[in-house]
């Protein structure tokens, strides 16, 4: 790689582009205002220093951002480089430049993933916006997530068992055809696995389906035994399709030995043999990171989850004097996780990255899936006020709205005692660990609880006495104060600001095709989402630049209905 950056715009290209688009286009404004973001130097570690000169990585990054901004395929993006005048202007190409082959874009993305540069362009754009004071620390930001459908077909539990065998056979036929022809009955397997498993209808009879599952299991076991044989090349075991076949076989089948010492393969029964939990269970032999997940009773999908964080300050900082242009809401963080990961697992990472990039919010608006007592407390220590509805007390007293829940007890943290509403004092204070977190177990004496007139309202435990589980003092007081505040009208009106992030998610879905993964695997899907976020920011910056250049004018035209109403009232 020769670090040259974007080429100067040729004079002829500039003349034709300005003549064709006197008001400019998104691609032309990106070139004029963001050329520094697409420098070559940050990509240097991903490219060699010897050999023939390659294409500029900064130029390829700009093409990729424009590609996502218009939701184009690789072939369409390469075609735009050849025929779109404004793209040639943005890239600094001559009008006669033939461009490059569309496969270059896939190789460029693979190189970025290989060197962990999925977020490089997004982070550089974010830093540029921070330096231009379009994003500042200490403001308001909001986060939400949405589901992403994987780039593989949805398969039921039986289909992956057969398709994994087919995928492994295809990979071995390409990597070690001679060995496969000697180790396995290729002619028989070719008849069974020539077509994709989902290209034909499964038997309607349960007996026939069970028999088909047994055949898939026997073939998989035979292939795995052949790969693990002492005379088989060791490197066969490291082929990705073979490794996934092993995992799918283990999650689908149970192998035992009968009275004659023979291995018997049968399909796992959930109630008898158990199955792996959802976050470990593979959904396809072609995407090891895609998982089945659900949200509520109606949404089920196989794929991933993406979290978007954006600014939401209501101000007009940075706008030219005399205009009413607001600073655009820009995406400050994008995170992709497996579909089974709860939202709460992403909160700390999001806030840490915002802090590292010097755009830490003063107020962070989240829905109820993101916070926990520990996260809210830790964020407050870092100067981040988490505006979010904390989940209510789940005890049966609180759910029934009768009896004594935790809020009815008075806690003396100094003497380590708790007093109940009937003025009895606890007799036990036991620090403990529950689910990996610090907790305090409070116990009241059985004689006190047995003689209490409110015993039935307080506890239904068979042991007869009331016990409470509390968090340590700081998170307990934080949660108690937050639950009390979120019931007020003032807090509800303030929290309404969070709903605006839904519009950002919809824009990313409509503009960049965020809903469906273009590529397979979590790293490449993360790269897609990082470029989608960068493209969304570029789209919003373009609207901001365009609005800033417009001259306010009075409205001189009226609607026909308005003119009719005026004549009737005259």
Key features?
13 strands, alpha+beta, 3-stranded antiparallel β-sheet, 13% strand, flat, 570 residues, 22 helices
Helix content: 40-55%
Shape: flat
What would you call the structural class? alpha+beta
Q: What does the oligomeric state look like here?
A: single chain
- Residue-averaged pLDDT: 89
Tell me what the structure shows.
This protein has helices spanning 11-20, 26-34, 57-69, 74-83, 85-91, 103-114, 120-131, 159-175, 177-183, 186-193, 206-228, 240-252, 344-356, 373-381, 396-400, 446-450, 455-458, 473-485, 489-495, 501-512, 522-549, 560-569, and strands at 140-149, 253-257, 263-267, 291-295, 299-311, 331-338, 363-365, 385-387, 410-412, 417-419, 428-434, 437-443, 467-470. It is α+β, with helices and mostly antiparallel strands. Strands 1, 4, 5, 6, 7 and 8 form a six-stranded mixed sheet that branches. A three-stranded antiparallel sheet has the order 11-12-13, with no helix packed on it. The chain has 22 helices and 13 strands. The protein is flat. Helices cover 43% and strands 13% of the residues.
């Amino acid at each position: 790689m020769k670090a040259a950056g974007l080429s100067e715009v040729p004079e002829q290209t500039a003349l034709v582009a300005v003549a064709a688009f006197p008001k400019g286009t998104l691609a032309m404004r990106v070139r004029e205002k963001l050329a520094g973001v697409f420098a070559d130097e940050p990509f240097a570690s991903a490219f060699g220093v010897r050999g023939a000169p390659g294409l500029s990585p900064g130029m390829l990054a700009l093409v990729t951002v424009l590609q996502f901004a218009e939701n184009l395929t690789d072939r369409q993006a390469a075609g735009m480089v050849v025929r779109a005048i404004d793209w040639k202007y943005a890239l600094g190409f001559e009008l006669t430049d033939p461009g490059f082959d569309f496969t270059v874009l896939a190789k460029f993305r693979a190189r970025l993933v290989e060197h962990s540069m999925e977020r490089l362009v997004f982070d550089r754009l974010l830093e540029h916006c921070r330096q231009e004071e379009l994003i500042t620390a200490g403001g308001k930001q909001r986060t939400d997530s949405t589901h992403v459908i994987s780039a593989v077909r949805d398969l039921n539990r039986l289909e992956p068992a057969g398709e994994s065998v087919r995928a492994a056979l295809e990979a071995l036929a390409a990597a070690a055809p001679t060995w496969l022809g000697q180790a396995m009955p290729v002619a028989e397997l070719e008849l069974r696995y020539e077509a994709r498993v989902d290209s034909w209808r499964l038997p309607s009879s349960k007996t026939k389906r069970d028999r088909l599952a047994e055949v898939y299991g026997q073939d998989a076991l035979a292939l795995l035994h052949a790969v693990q044989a002492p005379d088989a090349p060791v490197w066969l075991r490291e082929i990705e399709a073979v490794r996934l076949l092993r995992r799918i076989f283990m999650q689908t089948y149970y192998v035992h030995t009968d009275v004659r010492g023979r291995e018997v393969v049968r399909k796992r029964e959930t109630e008898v043999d158990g199955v792996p939990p959802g976050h470990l269970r593979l959904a396809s032999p072609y995407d090891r990171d895609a998982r089945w997940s659900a949200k509520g009773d109606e949404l089920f999908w196989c794929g991933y989850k993406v979290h978007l964080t954006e600014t939401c300050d209501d101000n007009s900082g940075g706008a030219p004097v005399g205009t009413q242009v607001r600073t655009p809401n820009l995406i400050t963080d994008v995170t992709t996780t497996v579909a089974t990961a709860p939202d709460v697992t992403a909160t700390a990472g999001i806030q840490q990255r915002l802090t590292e990039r010097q755009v830490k919010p003063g107020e962070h608006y989240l829905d109820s899936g993101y916070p926990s007592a520990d996260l809210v407390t830790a964020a407050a220590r870092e100067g981040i006020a988490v505006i979010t509805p904390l989940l209510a007390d789940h005890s049966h007293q609180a759910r029934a709205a009768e009896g004594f829940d935790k809020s009815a007890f008075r806690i003396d943290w100094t003497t380590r005692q708790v007093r109940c509403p009937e003025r009895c004092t606890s007799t036990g204070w036991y620090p403990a660990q529950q689910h990996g977190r610090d907790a305090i177990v409070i116990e009241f004496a059985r004689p006190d609880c047995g003689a209490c007139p409110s015993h039935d309202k307080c506890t239904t435990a068979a042991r007869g006495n009331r016990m409470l589980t509390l968090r340590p003092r700081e998170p307990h007081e934080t949660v108690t104060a937050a639950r009390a505040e979120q019931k007020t009208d003032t807090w509800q009106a303030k929290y309404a600001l969070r709903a605006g992030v839904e519009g950002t998610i919809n824009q990313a879905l409509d503009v960049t095709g965020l809903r469906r993964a273009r590529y397979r695997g979590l790293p490449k899907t993360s790269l897609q989402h990082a470029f989608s976020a960068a493209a969304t920011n570029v789209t919003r910056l373009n609207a901001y630049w365009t609005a800033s250049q417009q001259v306010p004018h009075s409205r001189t035209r009226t609607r026909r209905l308005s003119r009719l109403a005026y004549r009737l009232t005259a």
